[in-house]
Specification:
By secondary structure, this protein is of the alpha+beta class. It is built from 8 helices and 24 strands. Strands 1, 2, 3, 4, 5, 6 and 7 form a 7-stranded antiparallel β-sheet that branches.
């Protein structure tokens, strides 16, 4: 349908929708919308169209979509003041953006990137929001340079990423620190003027405060931008003594999303990075496995195997041991009780990880090349423990040298179906 908006107003559209500009002058977070351009808005996302000159839109709304006009600027004055101050700093500049869930962090990062691009300077974005990552698949920290004005960071495909394997930082703080430090180091080698780092919405409580302070120490940003919404960021921002801090307003036009909407957005992102995927086979002897108890150990001696068989009352279909852990896989129909696992640990004097065949199916996997560069994600379909082969559904065509297993499980439609520590060493 055709819809006309007068000068000075903002059209807010909640997806799923497709919006085309027929006439007028319109911008989205300071990125100019061209006449004839169509913008697709995902379910769970809101896009603000700031009308600078009376505009006509061609609107196609999906089920559950909505729109409204407001007399309000899409960019708060505090954002404009902060961006001017940031742009005046000596280059290169690293900007870390913090704020609660749905506080406008991603919108500000998009706005700032567009402002940097408008000044004909080089900008790059690292998205460290594991659960709502736009640059990179969910459960990763993604990076790419900005080569043109952007209306939605989701339109940017990660040129590099660090696979964490969980959508919450709470249990993997050290992994997040490692990934951020690694990606920042790589990003700054691309001769950027501005590196913008988006962070997750975990800000409430003592643990969250410690985490965000540790993030800032790890990254050493030039400036931290805090999305001000009541007093949720006060403990964090006041503790940052050695870095410039700018507090800005969280805009009222930001849409609050429930858990289900955030899950839908993640599933769309999984699908984006698994488009044109196919099943590939990988032999354990030809690839490295990191951060896992599978494929990193050595065969057990006959004597130790006999002890395990006696304690379990069955022969494992696969087993190996590292310096600290014994890994055992049993047939699907074999039952196991906790007391048996404790007995194995007592006899072998090591932690025992005992699983049943099939428990690993659906695990999210990160695939990397010989140099450790991230290639993409995959879903573990099956493990042939006898032949020591893994079948992984992935869009990665390149040669894979290293695998990292996450804790997220997905079904064939890329829907999240739970968490599993079946292969991972760290426990949440």
């Amino acid at each position: 349908m055709k819809y006309v908006v007068e000068t000075g107003k903002t059209l807010l559209v909640d997806g799923p929708a497709s919006i085309g500009l027929l006439s007028g002058k319109v911008s989205v977070l300071c990125a100019q919308v061209k006449i004839g351009e169509k913008i697709v808005i995902r379910e769970g996302k809101r896009v603000p169209f700031g009308v600078k000159k009376k505009a006509a839109f061609d609107m196609m709304l999906g089920e559950g979509a909505s729109f409204e006009e407001i007399i309000q600027e899409t960019v708060p004055s505090s954002w404009e003041m902060a961006s001017k101050e940031i742009l005046s700093l000596k280059k290169p500049v690293t900007v870390m953006v913090m704020g609660g869930v749905d506080s406008g962090k991603t919108s500000f990062c998009t706005f700032l990137a567009n402002e940097v691009f408008r000044k004909k300077l080089k900008a790059g974005v690292i998205d460290a929001d594991l659960g709502q990552s736009d640059v990179g698949p969910p459960s990763t920290i993604g990076f790419n340079q900005i080569y043109e004005p952007v209306k939605d960071l989701f339109d940017i495909r990660a040129s590099d990423a660090f696979f964490v394997g969980l959508t919450s930082p709470a249990g993997v703080v050290n992994k997040v620190m490692e990934g951020l430090a690694e990606l920042k180091s790589k990003a700054m080698k691309t001769d950027l003027d501005f590196l913008i780092i988006n962070t997750d919405g975990w800000v409430e409580g003592e643990d969250a405060t410690k985490y965000k302070i540790q993030l800032a120490k790890t990254v050493s940003p030039t400036v931290v931008v805090g999305m001000r919404r009541e007093d949720d960021l006060t403990p964090i921002l006041t503790a940052l003594k050695e870095v410039k801090v700018l507090a800005i307003d969280s805009p009222q036009l930001v849409k609050q999303r429930n858990r289900e909407k955030r899950k839908i957005l993640r599933e769309l992102s999984y699908k984006k990075y698994l488009k044109h995927a196919k099943v590939r086979s990988f032999a354990l002897k030809w690839i490295r496995v990191k951060g896992s108890v599978l494929g990193t150990g050595s065969p057990l001696t006959r004597e130790r195997m006999r002890k395990i068989e006696n304690l379990l009352g069955a022969k494992p279909i696969y087993s190996e041991e590292t310096l600290t852990t014994v890994f055992i896989a049993l047939k699907r129909n074999h039952s196991i009780i906790e007391e048996q696992i404790r007995e194995i640990e007592k006899k072998l004097k090591k932690r025992a990880k005992v699983i049943k065949e099939g428990e690993e199916e659906g695990l999210l996997v990160g695939l990397h090349d010989e140099q450790g560069n991230f290639l993409g994600i995959g879903i573990l379909c099956r493990v042939d423990y006898g032949r020591k082969f893994l079948k992984i559904y992935t869009a990665v065509d390149e040669e894979v040298s290293t695998l990292r297993f996450g804790q997220i499980k997905l079904d064939e439609g890329c829907k999240e179906i739970g968490l599993s520590t079946v292969y991972t060493e760290y426990i949440v």
